[in-house]
Model the fold of this input.
Amino acid sequence: SFKLEELVTISSFLNSFVFKMIWDGIVENARGETLELFHSVHGWLMVLYERDCRRRFAPEDHWLRKDLKPSVLFQELDKDKKRAQLLLQYIPHVIPHKNRVLLFRNMVTKEKEKLGLVETSSASPHVTHITIRRSRMLEDGYEQLRQLSQNAMKGVIRVKFVNDLGVDEAGIDQDGVFKEFLEEIIKKVFDPALNLFKTTSGDERLYPSPTSYIHENYLQLFEFVGKMLGKAVYEGIVVDVPFASFFLSQLLGHHHSVFYSSVDELPSLDSEFYKNLTSIKRYDGDISDLGLTLSYDEDVMGQVGFYSLI
Done:
């Protein structure tokens, strides 16, 4: 209904509107129609923001609030000010990404100090020691880490690599191999050959494999993968895991929103199918000439199944 340049103007207004409602304290005490108005405007804003994330139409730095200094926001968060918390909850995109990363690292540091996970002059943090065979890295890591408590997983984990005979690897600094272990584990679990995850055609983005159930403990494996990714984020370890955007939308809970459209996410799964599907809307002839059926074929472990949608 709108041209792209009109969407830029509309999104700029909505972004300012939502920011002002939060920063001026209107949302904190909002009730009835005011609260409904906020959620309605915020919903429309996020539809446009997520569309821009999928395929950029707005200029660079369009979503940032130049009048909001990150240092001011950090100070308000330290004081537990409600408006700062609401800002992070509803429109974190108004803050530059690098500042959000710094904020997160600061939160992690404070939590580690609170949990006693930081070395001090008077105390040493608890250390979890695990022994890993390189030939069975995934199996050993899964067995030794999956049962760890939340605080133990956040703490220090020391890895000792041994060969298949149980002999320690020579010349390895045992304090510095956890990052290597984590990177190798993540590389293995996201390998499509393991069949926990698959890749999309074209850009090869990762998403859970529909046939992951061939692993008897596949749900526990997915939970373990989540813990390993969480540990990487918590420790500031950068890993190369290119998830498909439709899967990320599911993780973020966007599919629960009334504004969510699975058709919008379809290009990230199968761009060719999306192109063919949307071309039907612009087809000028008799649609029956195309011989379409409401069905789909699925290849499961080499066996192709035919499924009717009606």
